[in-house]
Amino acid sequence: MSEKSQLGMVLIISGPSGVGKDTVWKAAQPCLPSFQRAITCTTRERRPGEVEGVNYYFVSKDEFERMIHEDELLEYALVHQEHFYGVPQKSVLNRINNGEDVVCVIDVQGARRIRSLFPTAVLIFIKPPEGREAEVLTQRITGRDPVEESELSRRLASAWEELSQVEFYDYQIVNDELDRAAAELCELIEKVKAERDAEF
Predict the structure, then answer these.
(1) Half-sphere exposure (CA, 13 Å, Cβ side) for 98?
(2) Range of 74's domain?
(3) Interatomic CA distance for residues 54 and 149, integer angstroms
(4) 118/116 Cα distance (integer angstroms)
(5) Are 124 and 11 in contact (CB under 8 A)?
(6) What Å distances lie between residue 121 and 44, 48, 85, 196, CA to CA?
(7) DSSP, residue by residue, 158-172
(8) Of 10, 28, 29, 127, which shows the fewest CB atoms inside 10 Å?
């Protein structure tokens, strides 16, 4: 087996705020046991039910800026012009160098940066049903925690910007029904992994 084939696979899952990318990944995870999620750092407040070190690493803005300064992040971005998100280098590099598969659930800015560092990364975009984008995203954003009108407008503007970049991705999955979307994600990744394994 060549050295290249021993490296783990990097999977990027993106999508606009409220599309359910985290939910789709959680539903698909049982059928993709080789993938470990790269835990992202964020400066935003923890939402009810979120667990430190499982959903995110919740850090202060000062700590995040220190991580940037000391080059500890593979990528980072200011999301919705409000909170920083970033992927720690160690959460990806250590794993893929050990032959482990890694999934990063990140925004479009982050996906572009990761693709530049890992050209063989597989990028999947989760999108809402066509023609119902605003309705679905508004419902999901306002349904998980209270959001002021200005914040909702900002998130929807970001969502339209991200939806305009969908062609950058290798694959697209419509999250119109959770079980179906999760099954499609599983089938897609299993196919890609089989194709890559066949190359070696």
Answers:
(1) 11
(2) 4-198
(3) 30
(4) 6
(5) yes
(6) 27, 32, 20, 12
(7) HHHHHHTTGGGSSEE
(8) 29
- CA separation for the pair 6, 63 (Å, rounded): 34
Evaluate whether 126 touches 21 at the Cβ level (below 8 Å).
yes
Rounded average pLDDT per 10-residue block, the chain, 200 residues = 66 91 95 92 92 92 96 88 89 91 90 91 93 78 76 83 91 95 97 83
Provide the token pair at 84. 């920083």
User: What angle separates helix 149-163 from helix 133-144, to the nearest 10 degrees?
Assistant: 130
Sheet hosting strand 83-88, strand order edge to edge: 56-58, 40-42, 83-88, 73-79
Placement of tokens 């339209």 in the chain: 160
Q: d(Cα 77, Cα 85) in Å, to the nearest integer? A: 6
Q: Find where tokens 């080789």 sit.
A: 34
DSSP 92-118: HHHHHHTT-EEEEE--HHHHHHHHHH-
- Both tokens assigned to 68: 């940037």
Q: Which residue has the tokens 């693709």?
A: 115
CA angle (85 as vertex; 82, 86 as ends), nearest 5: 150
Domains held by the chain: number:
1
CATH, residue 57: 3.40.50.300
Q: What distance in Å separates the CA atoms of residue 115 and residue 121, rounded to the nearest whole number? A: 6
